[in-house]
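Subject: Sanity check before I submit

Could someone independently write out the structure tokens for this chain? I want to compare against mine line by line before I put it in a report. The sequence has 277 residues.
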Amino acid sequence: MSEETRSETYAELASVGPYGVRPGHALITMVEPHPGQEYAYNRWYEDDHYYAGAMAMPWMYAGRRWVATRDLQELRRPEKSAVAQPVTAGCYLSTYWITDGRYDDHMKWTVGINKRLNRDGRVHQSRTHVFTSFQDHAATVYRDGAAGPRDFHALDHPYAGLVLQVVDTEGPEARVRLLDRLRTHDLPRRLTGSPAAMVTVFRPTPLPGDRMTYVKQVEGVETRLTLLWFLEQDPRHCWADHFADLDTLASDTARVELVAPFIPTVPGTDLYVDQLR
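---
Independent answer below. Compare away.
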């Protein structure tokens, strides 16, 4: 006998509210599997959690996993980071887009399903959340203007790499000024002639009080910006010329706390797992 799914309720929910394609919100989560658990973690996440704990949820419409092999981890800056201690921590990154205006709806579902998954023994405990936060979209800057993929395509387009950049400012007003400068000056200048096709910028939002206990509350809600640089080349092939100095992309009132390159995982495989340590 099939379980009750409340199909009529689904029909009611689908008939109201925003349903555009714009990535109004994101989940960005960087995780470190415990030593000796790398293969088990990768298989759990790819075979179960990526789907049951993310993509099967309402309004989470795109996702991609990324990995930092040891040589990529060693490119990270700055050496002393407020995000990752040590700065090499967090060898897997998952990024997801959530439909604009559907954050509250999605959060109700994600808290409920993750409690259920945990209760049913479907959560891999041998891991540490280094940087996990839901975020609101603040800006997208494109290298090629109207040509090429849009930000809502970014997690489905076969980009060869991604750079995660986290910047902390001294206060909310400083963040507003930095965002304006990044959007109108710094990012357009940096993207000219760059292997990065676009940069998406997000502001973190606090996690609900009933979140899972293994996920710590988000830091820098009023002061932090998170940038995702989508690359058309493997970051190892263009790092020195284009990204090695990204930790200077700040100001007197802001500090870059993390610049971390990744490459995409190959779903269904354990490719790169033996290159993490």
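---
OP: Matches mine. For the report I'm noting this point. The longest strand covers residues 127-142.
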